[in-house]
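Dear support,

I submitted the protein below through the web form. The confirmation email said the job was done, but the results page showed an empty box. After a refresh the structure appeared. I'm attaching both so you can tell me whether what I see now is the final result or a partial one.
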Amino acid sequence: MTEQVNYDYEGSSEGAVRHWEIPYARLEDATPTPSNPAAVISLLPGTQLTGTILTIDATRSVAVIDFTCSMVYRQDVRNVLTYSNGAESTFGAINIGDPVYYDGSATMPAGVYLSTAPADSAAAANPLFGWVVPLNDTDMALYPKGGATASTQEIGVMQIGAGR
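What the results page shows now:
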């Protein structure tokens, strides 16, 4: 029997890398910064395509975003769980395997776009961005991170990207 690759998925164990240019005007944060998380504007709250900004082209007003499924990036994550009357209300420790959401709430600290809250400060659904994973053995020993008071933690996040 002749060996052959029958399907595209048999050609690579890593899957496809997905980098796309997205106009600033189509992003939740219209002033993108490389290495920050991004969410593309969607008709339905909580359904946004999310990824990590790789580069920007200010001349053309486009950002190149990595939408690769399962890519891991070091991100700042707010430990807020719920909001009440538009303000952060409850907080919790962040642990390996916890879901992380793209949170466009105005109450988020400057430069922080991810949280553990499934809904934003206006009670709209936040899109799932990915899951908490350890960055290395040293980082693994630091979990859980944060606690019952407000904090922003440096976390390894395995993003959903365009592969869900």
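Response: this is the final, complete result; the empty box was a page-load delay. The first strand starts at residue 19 and ends at 23.
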